[in-house]
Amino acid sequence: EVQLVESGGDLVQPGGSLRLSCAASGFTFSNYDMNWVRQAPGKGLELVSYISVTTGGTYYADSVKGRFTISRDNAKNSLYLQMNSLRDEDTAVYYCALTIAAGGAIRNGMDVWGQGTTVTVSS
Amino acid sequence: DVVMTQSPLSLPVTLGQPASISCRSSQGLVYSDGNTYLSWFQQRPGQSPRRLIYKVSNRDSGVPDRFSGSGSGTDFTLKISRVEAEDVGVYYCMQGTHWPPYTFGQGTKLEIK
């Protein structure tokens, strides 16, 4: 069974740091691009970051650029998001997600999602 | 970034009746390969998002055939032929044509009347 399990969410003060992890299983992790998507309380979905498996290229939303870093460890089947200089507006559920079905065409959007991990930034 | 605008934002529906959600993009969504990368997601209360439809009208595995997608260019529609109780949740459209990034609509909350 294809599965993604996020961890690392916590309550943190503004200016603090957190590292989120996503453990993948049930598929060949090293073959797929990966994403972090977040959802602020009562709000919609926002792509936070993306990492390519082939080029190592990354994408960051303007709102997190320079503060967040995405990385992966294919040997450990894991995806990470290092979050520094956290702000109140980073409070959200963070999902890792990927596209597997339909040939893994990333433009189709993510068809596999984790259960999410909650980050709360507050003093 | 491409802006996706959904309507209505709230959709009360009687069980067994049809429902329709509109999604409009600020730019055309035909990609250079000829495909239109417009997807629909469902998020039930307390759950992670689930993709229902990709490339405008292709249902994902396990998605009931009461869900259908249509549209072209900048205007797209998700239809539910007969709403069931399990359909309650928020529905999002998403474009992947002008990726990165994916951009999502604001969401439409479907509830039972």
Could you outline the blueprint of secondary structure elements for this entry?
The complex is a heterodimer of chains A (123) and B (113).
Chain A: E1 3-7, E2 11-12, E3 18-25, E4 34-39, E5 45-51, E6 58-60, E7 68-73, E8 78-83, E9 92-98, E10 112-113, E11 117-121
Parallel strand pairs in A: 2-11
Antiparallel strand pairs in A: 1-3, 3-8, 4-5, 4-9, 5-6, 7-8, 9-10, 9-11
Chain B: E1 4-7, E2 10-13, E3 19-25, E4 38-43, E5 50-54, E6 58-59, E7 67-72, E8 75-80, E9 89-95, E10 103-104, E11 108-112
Parallel strand pairs in B: 2-11
Antiparallel strand pairs in B: 1-3, 3-8, 4-5, 4-9, 5-6, 7-8, 9-10, 9-11
Backbone structural class of chain A: mainly beta
Global geometry of chain A: globular
Largest sheet: number of strands, sense, barrel closure of chain B: 7 strands, mixed
Helix content of chain B: under 10%
Q: Count helical runs of chain A.
A: 0
Strand content of chain A: over 45%
Which pair of chains has the greatest number of interface residues, and how are they split between the two chains? A-B, 22 and 27 residues
* Unreliable runs of chain B: none
**Biggest sheet of chain A, in brief?**
7 strands, mixed
- Give the oligomer, counting copies of the same chain as homo and different chains as hetero: heterodimer
Could you give the order of the helices and strands of chain A? EEEEEEEEEEE
Number of helices of chain B: 0
By secondary-structure content and strand pairing, the structural class of chain B works out as mainly beta
Report on the structure:
Chain A has about 120 residues and is mainly β. Chain A has strands spanning about 5, 10, 20-25, 35-40, 45-50, 60, 70-75, 80-85, 90-100, 110-115, 115-120. Chain A has no helices and 11 strands. Chain B is an all-beta fold and about 110 residues long. Chain B is about 0% helix and about 50% strand. Chain B has strands at about 5, 10-15, 20-25, 40-45, 50-55, 60, 65-70, 75-80, 90-95, 105, 110. Chain B is globular. At the A-B interface, strand 5 of A face strand 5 and strand 10 of B.
